[in-house]
Amino acid sequence: MNELVEFLTKPQRVINGSNSKGLQDFKDQIDRGYVFVKFTETKGGTDLGVRMDQERSDISKADFEAATGSVHIEGELTLNYVKVRCIADINLENLEGEGYLQPLEDEDAESVA
């Protein structure tokens, strides 16, 4: 497995990425169904664009007007030729949280067997 992908499979600190301009920008990303999640523990950070899986993601615990609660984000993408699912929980108070990547190739192999 790719070294970066393997490193990001461990739960670690994430923030709303891609030069986000705050809570309203994050809400706009969620409304579009495409959010940016930045893993901060790599050199310079690893900023990923994630197309939200609406069935797996959950914004029901988020109160954007009060800037409280959290958002659970899941979505698939390809990083360094490896298909992965990004799983992250981001707190609305500071737009920080925890996330990790889950390689999907193992799932594909299991579903074929």
- CATH-defined fold name: Polyomavirus Enhancer Binding Protein 2, Chain: A
Largest sheet: 7 strands, antiparallel
**Rg estimate, integer Å:** 14 Å
Strand arrangement within the widest β-sheet reads: 3-2-1-7-6-5-4
SSE topology string: HEHEEEEEEH
Which spans have pLDDT < 50 for at least 5 consecutive residues? Answer: 108-113
Please tally the helical runs, counting DSSP H or I stretches of 4 or more residues: 3
Could you estimate the helical fraction of the residues in percent?
Answer: 10-25%
Arithmetic mean of pLDDT: 93
Beta-strand portion reads: 35-45%
Shape: globular
What is the correct CATH architecture?
Beta Barrel
Structural class: alpha+beta
Could you name the CATH homologous superfamily? Core binding factor, beta subunit
Q: How many DSSP E strands?
A: 7
Number of domains: 1
**CA-to-CA gap between the ends?**
21 Å
CATH class: Mainly Beta
In short:
The protein has a single domain, classed as Core binding factor, beta subunit (Polyomavirus Enhancer Binding Protein 2, Chain: A, Beta Barrel), CATH 2.40.250.10.
Structure, explained:
The chain is built from 3 helices and 7 strands, in the order αβαββββββα. With 113 residues, the protein is α+β, with helices and mostly antiparallel strands. It has one domain: Core binding factor, beta subunit (Polyomavirus Enhancer Binding Protein 2, Chain: A). A 7-stranded antiparallel sheet has the order 3-2-1-7-6-5-4. Strand 4 and strand 5 form a beta hairpin. It starts with a helix and ends with a helix.
